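Sequence decides. Consider this:

===
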Amino acid sequence: MPEPEGVIHKLYMERQLPPKVAEVARMQGEDPDRTSLMIEELRDMIYEKGECIPHRIDDDYLIKFLRARFWNVHHAYNLMVRYYAFRESNPEFYENVNPMALRSLGDDDIISISPYRDQEGRRVICFKFGKWRPAKIPIVDLFRATMLLLEVGSLEPQSQVLGGIGIMDLEGLTLNHAWNLTPAVAQKMLALLATSMPLRTSQIHIVNQGWVFDTAFQIFKPLLTDKMRQRLFFHGTDRASLHKYIDPEALPERYGGTKPEYPYTYWLEHLSRDERVVDELQQLGYVSDPLLED
């Protein structure tokens, strides 16, 4: 599908927060008079405990862990430990991964991210798992793409404060998909979306679910904490129910919204031209060499 004119998937990486977002940050515990002290406290904790070796400890990098845990230094430190443990356990999700090699997830319309934000200023990411063909795209690529989305999202100060929203569209989900959802896969999904990344997933909205989902969800239920359950919302095909949480102005037409679809591919292509993003991803182990044509 052609890209709409004038639509740019731009990251906003400026340090200064918009006034409304700055107010939310203040309510979350971000105090300009204490920011430096709390950053230094987190940095000292990293040195003293030695449970992880971050690839960076500059202020901008540490702030995103503090924001992800509402400026609780101990919780931010524990998040960092989990983040690096997750990376160490799953190097195949990022090590020598070329983001452009994941464009098939956009070509097949499995993942999309809107260039627009919802009424609260949050990014909206949509996963259409029913369109995923396991025989064509290995499940590791779904993890790679999701981790990449979260890594890039965590570069935006506004997203660090507000978090993001996920829409899980389960139309077309089959038993073939469900068979790929092992307990190990479920644990990794929850680690990415809830416990081990320096970016909060504020809400997850399940739409178009059927009996196959009910079966697969039994794998996830024992792993969910009360906080995770509070972030899950089930809508089926009830668009009015979804609109109670996400304004139609931030949704594509398929969900009763006003916007066209924006595949993952557009997002990758725009970000691949942003030198700051490319540099950040290279520090994390990704590669940006041009893909060879078949």
The chain has 14 helices and five strands. The longest strand covers residues 111-117. The CA atoms of residues 123 and 164 lie 5 Å apart. The mean pLDDT is 90.
